What we know:
single chain, Rossmann fold, seven-stranded parallel beta sheet, 10 helices, 14 strands, binds NADP nicotinamide-adenine-dinucleotide phosphate
Amino acid sequence: MATVAIVGASGYAGQETLDRVLAHPSLELYALGSDSLAGRPAAELDPRLGRNGWRGIPRFITNEAALSCGADVVFLCLSHEEAATVTPPPRGVVVDLSGAHRFVDPGVYPSWYGFEHPHPDDLESWSYGLPEVTAPVGRLVANPGCYATAALLALAPIKDEIEREVVVVDAKSGMTGAGRSLKPSSHAGAVLENVAPYRVGEHQHAPEIASLLGFPVALVPHLLPVRRGLIATCYVRPLGSDLRSILEAHYAESHVVTVLPEGIAPELSRVQATDGAEIGVFGDRLTGGAFVVCALDNLGKGAAGQAVQNVNLLFGFPETAGLRLSGVLV
Length: 330
Ligand SMILES: NC(=O)c1ccc[n+]([C@@H]2O[C@H](COP(=O)([O-])OP(=O)(O)OC[C@H]3O[C@@H](n4cnc5c(N)ncnc54)[C@H](OP(=O)(O)O)[C@@H]3O)[C@@H](O)[C@H]2O)c1
């Protein structure tokens, strides 16, 4: 058993992480951090946490207290800027779900995240944990961004088999991707029955994708009027290899990522509220190009599910322990 503290447990990513931890056979919840709920019972976040069976869940404590409680695993579910200020505890695994430790180059932070990194010299201590592409190493893990996860699952295995100058990632995410705090752009009145691109040409996941692939892609994120789920359609030009065969071979042993049979497209409805991802591969008869499409849940494989998958790998637990992969109809 490994004990767990969740820092920022009241946000969407924190709540999803809590859900995975409660379902995990080898993780034991030890501390729940939230500055806004410190001192209050867990049921104040969600009444389901007050039910029989969940009554042993600890009360909220401050994020600082949760960080330093001595747990074997700390999940950091804070905003990028808050997470960047954190000094990791001296022992134990820390998985940061924010973007605060995804780059070795501190220069990325002022230009793409809008703040100077307060611990620039420590960034090299963190590894990027995208298990199907680059497994986590060491005890400090930067969990990938949700758009970056979808784009990299689709593109990383084929990156040497496509023209690098012409990759477009047309991506769409549900509203929970924007977090729980209310903003004018995430009001129901702005989002429902609407679809629009945002941060076109300047989304912070673009340099993240580029740093893993070794070349930039044109990322166009859109906000979808659904609660959760993310789909990324990647437009590529193959150099000659059969992209489907490469992707099928890459994910042949995966229980998390499925390459769908020819002619079947990934769909949000099959991945929403799960920790799995679907990939579809299509040729373009007219241009000779190809489309590689990846669907996942922004809070599942795009956040909490992946964070728990990383912990499973680091502790030697079964890779999918605690993950939601078995549902047929959600
Ligand atoms: N949402 C996603 O799909 C997703 C996917 C991948 C990565 N991430 C990353 O994970 C981190 C956390 O994201 P998130 O979506 O969980 O953010 P969030 O819902 O905004 O929560 C983050 C923190 O903000 C505070 N907060 C939450 N709701 C609030 C409210 N109504 N009023 C005031 N404060 C509130 C909470 O802290 P206190 O209770 O301590 O005040 C919470 O821990 C971010 O760095 C994000 O980029 C998110």
